[in-house]
Amino acid sequence: MKCAGWKCSLSLGFVLGTILLGAAPLAGEATPSPAVTPSLLSPKISMTAALLSEPPEPAQTIGEKLKELEQGVEEAKSKGDNAWMLVSAALVLMMTGPGLALFYGGLVRQKNTLAIMMQSFALMALITVMWALVGYSLCFGGSGPVIGGFEHAFLRGVGAEPNPDYAATIPQMTFMVYQLMFAVITPALIAGATAERMKFSGTVLFMALWFLVVYAPLAHMVWGKGGLLNASLGGKFPTLDFAGGTVVHISSGVSALVCALYMGKRVGYPKQPMPPHSLVLSFIGACLLWVGWFGFNAGSALAAGSLASSAFVATHFGAAAAAFSWSTVEWIKNGRASALGAISGAVAGLVAITPAAGFVRPMPALGIGAVAGVVCFGMVTKVKTAFGYDDALDAFGVHGAGGTIGALLTGVFAQQVVNPIFGVGKAVGGLDGHWGQVGNQLVGVLIAWAFALVGTIILLKIVDLLIGIRVPEEQELEGLDITQHGEEAYNLET
Amino acid sequence: MMKLEAIIQPSRFESVKDALREIGVEGMTVTEVRGHGRQKGHTEVYRGREYTVDLLPKIKLEMVLPDALVNRVVDTILKSAKTGKIGDGKIFLSRVEEAIRIRNEERGENAL
Predict the structure, then answer these.
(1) How distant is the Cα of A189 from the closest Cα of chain B, in angstroms?
(2) In chain B, which residues have their Cβ closer than 8 Å to the Cβ of A334?
(3) Model-level pTM?
(4) B52 pLDDT band (50/70/90 cuts)?
(5) DSSP type of residue A56
(6) Is the per-residue pLDDT at A38 higher than 70?
(7) The domain that contains A206 carries what CATH number?
(8) Residue B45 phi/psi, 5° resolution?
(9) Whole-angstrom Cα distance, residue B67 to residue B72?
(10) Mean pLDDT of A258-287
(11) Are the beta carbons of B45 and A273 separated by less than 8 Å?
(12) What ipTM was reported for this prediction?
């Protein structure tokens, strides 16, 4: 059999080879070594020949066929989900670099552009390494109420097999790398409050500790199995947080406020003008954030099904409504709708819709966005001025406030028709008649606030004692680009 | 010989330049400058924070003219640079003692 097939293929290959060989000179150029052609062609032909000459297999039982089909369907579903989740992971990384780096980069003064961009970029490297060593395990290993364990340290046991507790249809490797991107962007958001005056060394040490002490426990409490605030895996106070209203935005926003208060105002603030050096950069960054947020929120469905579609739509609607409402209020108050206002509004809406994205229908999403736009406008224009803290790029005003509003409104608008997280037919949020969920949300919000507040104060003190957190005044005046990195963002005249 | 310095609105620069070329002005030096007279700048608002921008971008033209051409040039600039609003700028005239062309050391009006 095999021998016959081999002979057959050889002869066929030879014939084809001869034809090709003969044709080569017709093409006008002598092909260097057409002798390879027969050997390239022959394997395929030999396989076909072998199949043709094999006797028919015994008929499968219906049961076997069904099993095979089911397996095929499972595999196809898993591949579809995996494709979406890998794209989502890449989209979330894009939010940090270039999204956030450009958004923040444009808002600072020219002399601090590279420094703020570098803070985002450094976290892409730093948190990734920490995530691989212990971070993933602390967030998603074990089943304690406050923090995970070390079972997945060094990514032990994280491979092609899904982790059915979190995402049953995608390799745990995909889940791991997707969650990593959240851990990267969260500390990067804090840099908005400390912009233009924080030491680079201090930033690196603070962010590394903050990731371990504040982010990892919060992520485990809200999303990890057995976590105190987990909504579907046995939490005591089931807090709905689809994509990180508490874990990402409240934690970073509140920590940002603490940092701004601890570090004090920039030299010359608020008397000296400190306008954004390039709103064009900020504009591009905000648009990248908006697009990346689809990976952040719709990806948090952890599958490519209808829940992802629902979260996608809610995300987009939330952003649009907030851009609209911020601009409208600004237009009424200042007589003009500014570009910075419109993009800030969109980001505020994206923040607020984050915890709600996979729980609410499109109309409530518009509502949540609209409220967030107005409230965050008030936070950055009125509240900041009234209290006099220097949250340089409004990390607290947008992420802290937007995240809090979003988390609370999620309790109001979550519906089981969108996501029956407490079981089929069971009421989820206030609209379903389960107003107690607003209370659960409040508990989640308060714990996130408390954790961020206390953790950040302690860490700032430690880092300040060890290596210092703020640059000396003369370095601040000269700019962080030169003093911290030895470079300038723009050398246009050389 | 007279030296003419004119500070004008950047938006009027192209028409001033074209008008001067039409009456035969052959050279000028142009600088982008910032400043204000009675105009006093404008306010910008970034996330509710107001900044007064009092040094506004202007264009400064400098040229040294033979006496015969001075009045025509002044008239031309007045016409072509005027928008009628505050902030249109000013023209300053001063006497020039000597002009020397570096290439061939010509002096006086011949050097212009």
Answers:
(1) 18
(2) 45, 48
(3) 0.83
(4) confident
(5) P
(6) no
(7) 1.10.3430.10
(8) -125, 120
(9) 10
(10) 95
(11) no
(12) 0.70
